[in-house]
From TrEMBL:
Protein name as it appears in the record: Lipid/polyisoprenoid-binding YceI-like domain-containing protein
Pfam families noted in UniProt: YceI
Domain of life: Bacteria
Location of the Lipid/polyisoprenoid-binding YceI-like domain: 5-174
Organism: Flavobacterium pallidum
Alphabetized SMART domains for the sequence: YceI
Length: 176
């Protein structure tokens, strides 16, 4: 069977996250600049090779002051660590449409394993004849595992920013 290459369609993809603020509301954000590719055997995504990179200075939460703080040395330190990377170790089918994606996330100078849940939306032809694949990916990670540990205590107890980060990712790939 031949290897099939899939490239990201960035206009129909979003690398998003949510973090609890003041322990009771979620603040959402995303990375505006990223690239990803998948290599499969034929059209089966089982055991696919997945590569992702994102530019840390492209973080966007809809608030310029917060985004600048996130780019600073308190968090991503985008000047020193301009890129985050994910390389898959395994892409395993759980049942029809559900997969588990395991790999290494490199962020802020450290590399740690992560496990992500993937919902495969299926294959579809667009109006121009391109075959596309859609994926919804979710997961959780602790930002302190990568040295993103800045926080502030609240007068009422607790902290300003949760350690847990929820990943909410929508990806569309184009078959090459």
């Amino acid at each position: 069977m031949s290897t099939t290459k899939w490239v990201i369609d960035p206009t129909h993809s979003e690398i998003g996250f949510k973090v609890k603020h003041m322990m009771f509301t979620n603040v959402s954000g995303k990375f505006d600049k990223f690239d990803a590719s998948i290599e499969t055997e034929g059209d089966s995504f089982e055991n696919a090779k997945v590569h992702f990179t994102g530019q840390t200075d492209s973080i966007n939460t809809g608030n310029a002051d917060r985004d600048n703080h996130l780019r600073s040395g308190d968090f991503f330190d985008a000047a020193q660590f301009p890129e985050l990377k994910f390389e898959a170790n395994s892409f395993t089918k759980i049942n029809e449409g559900d997969y588990e994606l395991n790999g290494n996330l490199t962020l802020h100078g450290g590399t740690k394993p992560v496990r992500l849940a993937v919902e495969f939306g299926g294959l579809m032809k667009d109006p121009w004849g391109n075959t596309k694949a859609g994926f919804s990916i979710t997961g959780k990670l602790n930002r302190k595992d990568w040295g993103l540990s800045w926080n502030a205590a609240l007068e009422t107890g607790g902290v300003l920013v949760s350690e847990e980060v929820k990943l909410v990712i929508e990806l569309q790939f184009v078959k090459q």
